[in-house]
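Chain A, query sequence.
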Amino acid sequence: MSLLSVQGLSIRTGDSELVSDLSFGIEPGGRMGLIGESGSGKSLTAMAITGLLPRDIVASGSILLDGQQVVGAGEATMGRLRGVASAVVFQEPLTALDPLMRLGRQIAEPVRRRFRREGLDPRNIESEVLSLIERVSLPQPERIARAYPYEVSGGQRQRVAIAMALACRPKLLIADEPTTALDVTTQAEILRLLDSLVRDLGMGLLFISHDLPVVAKVVDQVTVLRQGRAVEQGAVEAVLRAPAQPYTKELVQAAQTLDRALGGVR
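Chain A, predicted structure.
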């Protein structure tokens, strides 16, 4: 059974169709990149998968997440799936994190939910939080746990956000532009971290980005979106080496031009 099966997904608001007849799947442990420019429907697709679309935006078609139909599902059903079947890492952790809450306490919230679900001893929550901080390669876990979001760097905040996503041990990790707001050195570090975590924990990965060469470092398959429609799908190496569609060629060429301008540091 597929971990995620998206079939004929359309997303509308009023008379406007934002995503049209989109289909793709991710097997357990599989890695899919969802690529496209701003406004192509990438993040809307992620929101539909997790049941987080605004009320005035409606999804139709089918989304099976860990065997459960998401389209039309109620909040009770989605609440059981979030964190367990899937978890999301967003683009800008400074807005995703509570600025008035210490980082350790924020990580502890999803840990506490998992402990309740699995009947684990709540006295071990603090040690689990420190273990998660270590897992995402943050130094001095006790110091990070006591810190507020503004007291650590952007790369460290993103690692904390990844730790929170891992807290419930999801089967599918959705990374929505997780490196866009970071400098190129930190971006490379986060990509290596995600690659190792997905491999070591056996999770599936849906990586959303506008940058095909970046995504190629961590995924096996790719779906390219333009104006809400899939224009190309296939193995990422084949698409990157010989894109079949003009739009995909433009994405690759633009990324290569930027790479040369940056001196190959990407």
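The CA atoms of residues 103 and 144 lie 7 Å apart. The first helix runs from residue 42 to 49.
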